[in-house]
Design goal:
Layout (H helix, E strand, L loop, with lengths): L2 H26 L1 H9 L9 H11 L3 E6 L5 E7 L2 E8 L4 E5 L4 H12 L3 H30 L13 H31 L29 H4 L6 E5 L10 E5 L2 E5 L6 E6 L2 H14 L4 H30 L15 E6 L5 H14 L4 E5 L11 E7 L13 H7 L7 E7 L8 H13 L8 E4 L3 H15 L15 E14 L2 E9 L14 E5 L7 E4 L8 E7 L5 H7 L6 E7 L13 E6 L3 H9 L7 E7 L2 H4 L3 H9 L5 E6 L9 H7 L1 H9 L3 E6 L1 H15 L6 H6 L3 E5 L1
Parallel strand pairs: 9-10, 9-11, 11-12, 12-13, 20-21, 20-23, 21-22, 23-24
Antiparallel strand pairs: 1-2, 1-5, 2-3, 3-4, 5-6, 6-7, 7-8, 14-15, 14-19, 15-18, 16-17, 16-19
Helix pairs in contact: 1-4, 1-5, 1-9, 2-9, 4-5, 5-6, 6-8, 6-9, 18-20
Amino acid sequence: MNWKTLHRWVGLLLGALVLVLGMTGALLAFDPVQHAWRARPADPGLTVATLAERVARGVPGAEEIRRLPSGAIVVFGFDGEQAQASYVDPADGRVLGAYQASALPRWVKNLHRAFLLGDAGRWGAAGVALGLGLLCASGLVLLLRRMGGWRHMAGRVRGTLAQRIHTVTGRVLLAVLFLTSVTALTMSASTLGLVVLDAGVEPEVASVPTGQAALPVGQLAPLQGLAVQDLRRLNFPDAADPQDTWKLATRQGAGWLDRYTGQRLAWQDATLAQQAVDWAVVLHTGEAAWPWAVVLGLAGASVPLFWLSGLLIWWQARRQAPRTAHNSTLAQADVLVFVASEGGSTWGFAQSLHEALVQQGHRVHTSSLEQFQTTPATRQVFILAATYGDGQAPTHARLALQRIAAAPVAATPVTVLGFGDRQYPGFCAYAQALDEALRARGWPTLLPLECIHQQSSQQFARWGQALEQALGAPLPLHYVPRLPPTTALALQARQDYPGRPGQPTAILRFALPAQGGLAHFDAGDLLGIVPPGSSVPRYYSLASGWQDGFVEICVRQMPGGLCSTHLLGLVPGGSVQAFVRPNPGFALGRSRRSVVLIGAGTGVAPLAGFIRRNEGHKPMFLYFGGRDPACDDYFGPEIAQWQQQGRVAGVAKVFSRIPGGGGYVQDALRRDAEHLRGLLAHGALVRVCGSQAMASGVAQALDELLAPLHLSVQQLKAEERYAEDVF
């Protein structure tokens, strides 16, 4: 079953009606709370006999005593020809005031139960309740896939704002909404006559007068042993009809009592169906349990969040839906491109590859990975595969591995390109599984597996250069991501460093725009800069947060780098066009746990930002690697000052190009193994920033020192204690 498709279409078709049920349910949840606050419930030891005696004495013309779910006691009867309903005090039978349900709840209930359409509306409401149940069930399946299983359900939620709202709200209230769906269906089955609640036909009972007077209600033995908490309704016998009896309804069933002897003439136990409906009423309305009514009200009020965020997610996915031009048929194509994408962004990269190949004269067919197959005309196959959740396949491609395993092996090279996020433990795990399966089956490849981090257009372009060399023909890949609006940032100050030979570096500080324009950002988020003459942004880790009042990055000259050349050529007053992209997986959050910061070269920038904002003196330990302190000791004076202020508890620096410099940052970690083991054994967080090669060496060193603790970097990632920002 395609749960995602089911969830989408049920939500789109019934979303507005579910919204009506949710909002009216939230309004109705006020009723039990209001009634509970106003109610004067009976004392726990009060019997029905005593209550009825007090009512008979205090309310002339009483015909029925009803205990409301809130615990309040209401008496119905006649004052002459005038019907009346009154709240009474169970302590003395005194009338407290008239009982009358307000018009608003009645109208809202009618809208909630039947959309103001009578019986036809009741059937419609039952159908919408069923749809809500399907939405909740499919939503749970999708939530488990997104979070990577039950073990990660409490983990950090990533994605767009709409995705985070949808996921977090679902994680909190999905079970409550599913319960309201089940209970609504149970109540609808009763209302629509689909289940029988009574045990049978009401028995015929007769009480023949013996010439003696009827017993006072206080002397009826069955009522003397019955607590008011169990009462639902007690009907008085008609004084003008000597054959009439007392009629009693309780949680356990219904009975008839002789008015002259007090004997129980007949009894019907509540059926299982009746008990189920009774529980459904309590769980669906919160009656008799006002704290639960508050929970139900919050769940109903959350439905607009579900609906609006779900609608926005659908619209965003629709905008990203593939529209591939010049798409040859499978039989005619000499190059096949297969795509596995959960959110749709991988299709943009596939389209860039498709267009470049078409321009080189190839006949290209691009389609979803679940359609994997080759033909005699096929000369090359490319698979662009994103990883979803904790190493899972995108929903539509969940059976692709089985299809590949069943396909006949050909001599056609199949090249896999993976897309993922290094913050997830299963970074590009699905692409790796595909590549391993293909090689195990004997499929050749043109290029080894490459993994793209956070949809990096720069990495994609580098992969395109490798592909050009392998094909022996020019193949420029022009991937242009959809960009958010940019803001002009004016350079305020710069601090220059010689850096590596031919690669000068500078810390650039931009003024925070006075009129806004930039989203709130924190150290470790990414600043996207669009250089003149290009539509492809370059990303730099932020060394400051918006509270600092400026925007700061560290930039090294890249050989032939368009953006770095432009940035390093700026003088104070010059400007760039930029936007902020959140990087929540790298953020530290508000945890008070110790933090181990590991960086090399310009990768120290976001780590310096973490230290800068550590006014609370959270224990932080910095390990920094450079080449020569005279050339690349970035943020050196600032870090020394922050250490004096207690914002960083320990600093270890190594420089690999000077005698006695200490080697590389991973060497510093090994020398400090005992201290690090103690920190990590007590739950310390780890943040690593720098080159991929450095990050790989750091992970290896940490795995070695963690081994005595029976821990690994992979386990720390799974616990969301370890995150990388690599380039």
